[in-house]
Amino acid sequence: MSRAHALQPGRMWLAFLLAALLAACRTTPEPDVPQAVSAARQAYDALHDAPEDAAAMAAYQGALARLGIWLERQPADRQSAALAASGLRLDDHDLGEAGLRYRRAQGVSTRRLERRHTRDGIGLPMVAWRSNDGSGPWDRFLPPEGIYLPATALLEREAGGWVLRMVSPLAHAQATLAGRDWPLAADTTAAFALLLAQPGASELGRTGFFGLFNPQNARRAERVYLMKGYDPSKIPLLTVHGLQSTPLTFANLANDLFADPEFRQRYQLWQYHYPTGMAVLHNATQLRTALRRTLDELDPEGKHFATRNIVTMGHSMGGVITHTLVSDSGSALWDSVVDVPPQALTQCPPEAVEALHANLVFERDPRVVRAIFIAAPHRGSEMADNWIGTLGQRLFHRDQAALGPYSFLLECARDRIDPRFASLLHDGKFSSIRTLSSQSRPVMALSDIPPAVPFHSIIGQRRPGPMETGSDGVVPYSSSHMDGAESELIVPYGHSAFRHPDAVKEILRILHLQAARSPVPAGVAP
């Protein structure tokens, strides 16, 4: 057995507890850095000589806590220089980003999240962050709010002196310190919490409302965001939100997923954001276009493991539009709207026919290998037609630029188009609200097309009763259910079914299953 395990478990965790209490002293005055560094060096040497000494462990952890307090009180752009002036070199290469700044995880409020995920061990949990200033190689794919990463600080001796090393707890469960292996402390929630506390996150939340009712003036266009730098060896989990929503809806779920060691090892999180007000199939076309553009930029030759093993997870309308990524439409959707083939519409402007064709005729993207549908209204929602839908429609401002090509169809081929489809166009009601109706012929046609990949359904049932007549309060079971699912889970919850603990467990089970079926090729580091 390694000498790292010579310390009795009770004494070891007592030492960690003592260190945590030291770190929690928020009113501690700013420490004298040379004294804190000197104390940490002495503690490191003592730990090296006697790893079973609980007092040495507590002293080491306490010195790290004091360093952390001092470091976060320095001007953010001077932290590295301040460390150097104190005789410490900062090494944060493990985090994969340059120009990072640091805060103690202990001092970050997580009130916006339901659970805080931590791991006991050696080191001081930190949050590493920087603004998205375009300086990084992946910045154009990352959220404009900035980059926020969990980190763990360790003080180490090296040949040239002393180093404060920032280690990624997402990549490492252990740390080698003083020649021994130790469990690595972690707080994987604080980085999410600090991101959510930024003004940009609040602005993003408001785009859900404006994106539904006034999509032409939405502050953010549709695009795929990576939550950290691209990794060609990790499976992308692409999440797609629903009506009047944003990627923030998945904040708690993302926090829970990153608490899972296998998810951290095998997956990377991608999030699609889009203004949700336009018609469902228009939104689906935008998703397919945005994903194709992102993949072409990340992997122009299409050879990476990551870009050939995508898992999608769509909530509500997000489930309906991700269905188009894993399905071949044939002519089914076109035939549900137009009673002649595209080439017969010779009297119409080509751009109008092309726009309609792009919405209604598509092929599955072979790079998507599995799909998860959560509370998806495959056969529409009754709210699209009731007073709630009517009220929402009255607030809707149509995007005339996006509707332009379709409007030509009313002039050149109205007698060839489904009357309801034509009426929505004519009345300015060509919106996601109205096209999510069970009376929408193309949406119903899509629901009859089975996905060409393994898929799973997670469905909420708000009240006890027969499953077949159940509902999550927005979408009935009869609409969320899809024959042929590899699994279907009913949870006692409302429309945000993914927030139920059983749903989180099911999502992780599915992701573990896909990871087991998608081994990383030899020579590609996971």
What does the model show?
The chain has 526 residues and is an alpha/beta fold. The chain folds into 3 domains: 8-194, no CATH class; 198-328 and 363-380 and 432-517, 3-Layer(aba) Sandwich (Rossmann fold), CATH 3.40.50.1820; 331-362 and 397-430, no CATH class. It has 19 helices and 16 strands. The protein has helices at 9-23, 33-49, 54-72, 79-85, 190-196, 199-213, 251-257, 261-266, 280-298, 317-323, 332-337, 350-360, 387-395, 400-412, 419-426, 432-435, 441-447, 477-480, 501-517; strands spanning 88-91, 101-104, 118-119, 124-130, 147-158, 161-167, 174-177, 180-183, 186-187, 223-226, 235-240, 267-273, 310-315, 368-374, 455-460, 487-491. It has a 7-stranded mixed beta sheet. Strands 1-6-5-4-2 form a 5-stranded mixed beta sheet. Strand 7 and strand 8 (180-183) form a beta hairpin. The two termini are 28 Å apart.
